[in-house]
Amino acid sequence: MRIRWPRRVSAQVLLMQLAITAGVTALATGLFLAPLSHQLDDQAESRALAIAQAVAADPDVVQELESSRPTRNNPVQAEAERVRKRTQALYVVVMDTHGTRWSHTDADRIGDPVSTSPKEALSGKEVKQIDSGTLGRSARGKVPLRDRSGRIVGAVSVGIGYTSVRNRLLASVPGLLLYAGAALAVGVLAAVWASRRLQRATHGLAFADISALLDEREAMLHGIREGVVALDPQGRVRLVNDEAQRLLGLGGDAAGRPLDELLPPGRTTDVLAGRAEGADLLTVSGGRVLVANRMPTEDGGAVVTLRDRTELEQLGRELDSTHGLLEALRAQDHEHANRLHTVLGLLELGLNDAAAEYVAEVADTHRASAEEVADRVHEPLLSALLVGKAAIAAERGVALRISSATWLPDRVVDPRDLVTVLGNLIDNALDAAASAVEVELRAERKTLVLRVSDDGPGVPPDLRDRIFTEGWTTKQAPAHRGRGLGLALVRRLAERYGGIARVGARAGGGAVFTVVLPEALASAEFTAGPSAAELFAAAPGGAR
User: Fold this and answer.
1) Which residues contact residue 126 at a Cβ distance below 8 angstroms, ignoring those fewer than 6 apart?
2) Quick one: DSSP state of residue 281?
3) Signal peptide location in the record (predicted)?
4) Among 17, 35, 65, 167, which residue's beta carbon has the most beta carbons within 10 A?
C-alpha cells in the first residue's frame, strides 16, 4: 500500500522534525565513530604491513621464490600458509616481479596475476591501504621482496579481514548511546524552532500549494509572449524569462549579473534601469521596436515588462506606404484620364499620326525612368522601392532624382535591411523636402554608402544627434502607430553592420543623411576607390 505524503503543514513539519532529529543523532554518532573507525583501520593496516615485512625478511622465501615454480605445492605456498594461520590473517600472497601469485589461500589461484596493482610495492615502496580483491574487502600491507644484493625479486601482500575490524567498531557502539541521547535532545529543539519558523514563512499554506504556485509562476513567466525582467535593488538581474532573452539578446547566464554589464549603453539600458521615466516607453533593441513599462518593488528592485511592436511598426509603415501609393494612383488615374481624352480628341480630329506619336512619347518617358533605376541599381527590391517612392514623390510635387554617381551591382547580403534603411531615409526626406530629393547608392569593395539629400529646412547642429534617438520626433504621430522610430532603426541597423548613420547640411540648404554599411555587399569585386575608413571620414557629421 502506497503511503501518501500529508497535505497539512503541521503533519509535514512533524515529519521534518523527526528527520532533523534522526539526522542530528546520526551526525553526533558519526562524529564519534569516524575517528574510531579510522583508528581501527590504521591498526589493521599497520598489522598487515608488519606481517608482510616479517615474511619479506625471511631469506628462505627469497631463495624458494628463485628456485621453484608457482605450483600448488611449491615451498613458498607452504611458508605463506604457515604464516597466515599463525597470524590469523585473511591471506598472505607472495608474487614475483610480473605480479604472478606464488601463494594464495585458494591454491587454484596460484600462477594467476594478482587482482590489484603491485606497481608501488615492486617499485620499492611499502603500501598500507583498505582495498577490495578476490577475497573481499581487507586492510592490506604490501612490501617489496629483495634478495641479498638488494635487488627486488617480488613482493609480499598481506590482508587482514575487514569484517574483524567492523566487529570491533560495532562493539564500541553501546558506549556511544549517551552521546546519541544528547544529540536527540538537540535535534528536538532544532525541530521545534524550524517548525515554528516554517509556519510563519508559509502563512499556513500547504507545501503542495506553494509548489503549485511556483510551478504556475514559472509556466506563466516562460509561456507569455511578453518579456519580463526582474531586478534587485543593486540593478542585478533576478529573473529573465525566455521572451525577454530573445528580445534583448541575452544568454542563459543573465541571472545575478548587473544590467549595465549585460546590455550596451543606450536608451534600452536606461529604460530598464529606471533612468528614463514614463509609461509605454519606446526603445529599439537589436532592430526590434519594444514598448517597456517598469514597476518598482517594495525592496527597491523593479519588474520590467517588454512588448515586441516590431511587426506592428512594420505594418504601420506598410500602411503609410500603401496610403501613399493610393494617393499616387489616384493622381495618376486623373493624369491617365486626361491623356486618354487627348488621344481620343486627336483620333476624332483625324490626327492619327499625332495620336501615335503622343502615346509613344508618354510610354517612353515612363519606361526610361524605370529602366534608368534598374540599370543603376541591380538589386530588384531596392530598384522597385525607388520606382515606387518616385511615384509617391510625384504626387507630392517633389522630384525624386537618382544621383549620377549611383551604381549598385546585384550582390547585396541582406536587401531587406537596405529596404528598411533606404525607405526610412526617403520618407523623412519627402516629408521635409520643398521640391527635390536626391538618392545616391554607391558600392565600394564590400562597403555600401547611402546618401539621401533634400532641399528642406535642414537639421540644426544641436539636434543632429537627437533625431536618431528612439521616440524623438517633430512630426505629429498618426493614429495607427508612434513616431520617432524610423531614424532610430536606421542607426541601429548601421551599427549592426559596424557602420555609421549621420546627418549633415546640404550645400544650398537642406539636409544630407549618410549611412555607411561595411560588409553589406556579398563580394569585394569592384573598381578601386576610397577605402572604408575614408568613407567614414567623408560622411557628413564626421567619422565615429
Assistant:
1) 49, 53, 141, 142, 143, 144
2) E
3) none
4) 65
Calculate mean pLDDT across residues 385-396.
78
The residue with cell 621453484 is 68
Give the homologous superfamily in CATH for domain 224-308. PAS domain (3.30.450.20)
pTM: 0.43
Vertex 151, ends 148 and 156: CA angle to 5°?
A: 90
- Residue 158, phi then psi, degrees to nearest 5: -120, 135
3-state secondary structure 312-350: HHHHHHHHHHHHHHHHHHHHHHHHHHHHHHHHHHHHHCC
What is the rounded CA–CA span in Å between residue 382 and residue 388? 10
370-378 long-range contacts (CB < 8 A, ≥24 apart) are 372/402, 373/402, 376/402, 376/406, 376/407, 376/408, 376/441, 377/402, 377/406, 377/408, 377/441, 378/408, 378/409, 378/410
Cα 415 to Cα 146, 488, 535, distances in angstroms = 84, 19, 21
Q: Which class would CATH give 9-171?
A: alpha beta
pLDDT beyond 50 at 204 = yes
Whole-angstrom Cα distance, residue 508 to residue 518?
29
pLDDT digits 0-9 by tens, 125-172: 998 888 777 777 778 899 999 988 889 989 999 988 766 555 555 566
Amino acid at 171: A
Grid cell at residue 511: 539636409
* Predicted pLDDT at 16: 73
Cβ atoms of 128 and 140 closer than 8 Å? yes
How distant, in Å, are the alpha carbons of 125, 358, 534 from that of 352? 120, 10, 58
Task: Give the separation between CA 191 and CA 33, rounded to whole angstroms.
Answer: 24
Question: What does the alpha-carbon distance between residue 407 and residue 205 come to, in Å, rounded to a whole number?
Answer: 72
CB 504 within 8 A of CB 541: yes
Q: Residue 396 gets which letter from DSSP? A: T
- Highest CATH level, class, for 312-538: alpha beta
